[in-house]
Amino acid sequence: MPAMVKPPNLLYGVEEKPPSWVVWLLGVQHIGIIAIGLIFPVVVVQEMGGGVADAARMVSVSMIAAGIGVMAQAWGRGPVGSGYLCPQLCGPSFLGASILAAKTGGLSLVFGMTALVGLFEMAFSRLVRRLRVLFPAEVTGLIVMMVGISVTGLAMRMFFGARAASPELREAEILVAVATLAAMIGMNVWSRGRLRLFCILIGMGLGYGLSFLAGVLTPAHLERVLDGAWLASPLAGHPGWSFEGALAAPFLIAILCSTLKSVGDLTTCQKINDPDWKRPDLKRIGDGIMANSFGVISAGLLGGMGQSASSANVGLSVATGATSRVIAYAIGGLLFVLAFCPKLATVFAIMPAPVMGATLIFALSFMVVAGIQIIMSRMLDARKTFVVGIAMIVGIGVDVAPEIFHTFPHWLQPVFHSSLSAATLLAILLNLVFRVGIASKAGVELAPGRTRRNMCSPSCSARAACGARARR
Question: CA 217, 219, 223, 226 torsion: positive or negative?
Fold first, then answer.
């Protein structure tokens, strides 16, 4: 990976090596966010009527797959890895398809279909560099922004302590969430140096303590930690693999949405690490998608849930100013340890909901703003305005009025399962439609006496006055 200048807002750039103790603490901080995604395999097992043992095993194996994915992403050599710190977690894009597979054929069908579409993502990674027309700045920026918006509902429910079975608000949980978020923001905005580096970790620690004092975290939760085994293998008892052609469509849509989301996340990684960033480097993005496919295939083969690039962790890197890829290896190592040590993994499994909500809101704030910045990095004409505006309105509409989309044909349901997938696919389609009629040739007319050396650029606002005129 070529050397690049470190942006002034970063404490540790992508190629820098922080002190070892800093690296490991930052790794723990990132795992705090990754742990939030571990709720998805639990939901899949519960929906199929499985037991606690199946859920625990699937969670632990998902950690192993996430560890493989984050280290492959940071590798950045040959065709594997972008060379950036871009962790993976259990992808919400896979949730709907995985639940459908679990109800249809059990966990073996979930694992088989996950491994299969991981191979599709691997193949797609080799085509990305030839598809630049699909990923202009307005589309990639919209994807990044919608990543944050799509998780808003989950983050707000956790922040305010609302639950489906009991939606009323709980004052104790709100106080914990507000205090946790205030601590994170305060240390990030008004502190410098290492306090900023560990603002999430310190905020989480405060949140755990306040949760215990407020009764949100009970002695029963602590007993779960104490009763957990120090060592156990999650690889035993694998149910095998099975496949079902009828489930190909929902899983392909899931992996496509996950892959396009990764394009946005990796674009953000490029932008925050390069002060001279102009446009996405699709070659390195393709290598990054290849690394993501390692996480997905590993999850399918070993018995976990499909993995996606974690936008919240990318946002955390921006917030703390630490994007060193060395941190990725600490994250991977810690995930392996947690997968084989249930006692330590339980510490993250009992994370109070208000602490999760505060952490998500903090990290995703940076993703939403990063998406807006990418969109506005190019001048928006009428065509681009409609691409961004219509896709965003429909995407948000999926969350605001989901009942409308429930009446759509069955084969379209996976597309409108989330605001992210709907906005992403619609933006790509509209981008292709609105390209119709754009001239593919450009010419320059020079007034007498003008030469190429003193000619204004086509983008110069004063080109009419100096005699150079460009037409497109």
Answer: positive
